[in-house]
Amino acid sequence: MGSAAEGRLEQLAELRRRMAAVPARGAEATAHVPVAEEPRREALPVPAALENLLPDGGLAKGSVVVYTGAGSLIAGLLAAVTGAGGHAAVVGMPRLGLLAAVEMGARLDRLAVVPDPGPDPLEVASVLLDGLDLVVLGLNGLAVPMSRTRVLAARARSKNSTLMVTNGSWSGSALHIDTRVTGYGGLGRGCGRLRTVRLDVSVRGRAAQPRLGHLALSPEGGRVEWVSTPGPVRPAATPLRPSRHAAS
Questions:
Q1: Whole-model pTM?
Q2: Where exactly are the structural domains of the chain?
Q3: How far from 86 is each of 30, 68, 89, 162, 177, CA to CA, in Å?
């Protein structure tokens, strides 16, 4: 029991050392903001095809986002943040496709991965929020009590970091993103490789009307990107139910 506790403390200490080595966020961006520019809610970058579905055109800094569905879109979000120079982490998601994220433009030198966070993944996420722009936390079916969601939300807000939680129960989030796989392309055409994934994406926020969009993962200009597919963005009355392929 003692050795397990000591190992956990060592893991947290190592994470804190790594956070201390991360360059200060926002310094370069602040230097280039015109004095006359009106203040607006800051947001992390997302794939361009997702921008018009989100209230702030990206993932609002200092907020908590609840995500349900396809892991391939999470890979795209990590690629957008790290590809733009931000730092991110993935906690408790050992099956997330890092190769797919790289193909979408992710920078692994700006991405921390903690596949096994131990018995308290929330504490690990709390440490990472101290120095990173985006922390994606897989809850592995955990129902997080309100007392802890409030603490993590307050920490994300105070650190101006974004926490995305998935695969569990979390109350009090300002934004919900639900995805459902609607089809695949590329298989059975001689190459034996999946080339496209099609998603329906539903976004619900506290202060914005729910919206539904249609995205496809497709090779574009030598890399893999999310693109909008035909179909108008329209109000979504109810959340989408992820298909059995939700982890794709």
A1: 0.81
A2: 9-18+42-228
A3: 14, 23, 10, 12, 21
